[in-house]
Design brief:
Blueprint lengths: L6 H4 L8 H10 L3 H26 L10 H20 L5 H10 L2 H10 L1
Helix pairs in contact: 2-3, 3-4, 3-5
Length: 115
């Protein structure tokens, strides 16, 4: 079975997978358009994760399910949920970020360089 080295394989499917970031950096020189989209999705994932964490912090900390283990599990769940949400359309932030990235002069220079 051959390894797929396309940009899609660099996409982080698990919140703790940082190897995709190195692959994304390498492939950004080859296809800046796809890289901009992936960077925007990853940024949205981080933002959504922080938003979920802030919402969870408003909940009471006492009760039958309050423990360090449960808190660790909820943190992992929230981060994974943020990755899944952003990969399936998210809250629309990735689209806005992608437009911002692709309108920058640095991006346009990279596009000319890769052409």
């Amino acid at each position: 079975m051959a390894l797929d080295t396309t940009l899609a394989s660099a996409k982080a499917q698990v919140y703790s997978d940082f190897s995709g970031l190195a692959e994304l950096r390498r492939q950004a020189g080859n296809d800046p358009q796809k890289a901009a989209k992936e960077v925007a999705q990853q940024f949205e994932s981080i933002f959504v994760s922080m938003m979920i964490k802030s919402m969870r912090d408003t909940l009471p900390k006492d009760g039958i399910f309050s423990s360090n283990q449960m808190e660790a599990y909820q943190d992992m769940f929230d981060k994974q949920m943020a990755v899944d949400l952003s990969s399936k359309g998210g809250i629309g932030l990735a689209e806005i970020i992608e437009r911002q990235i692709t309108s920058s002069s640095v991006y346009k220079a990279q596009m000319e360089k890769s052409s």
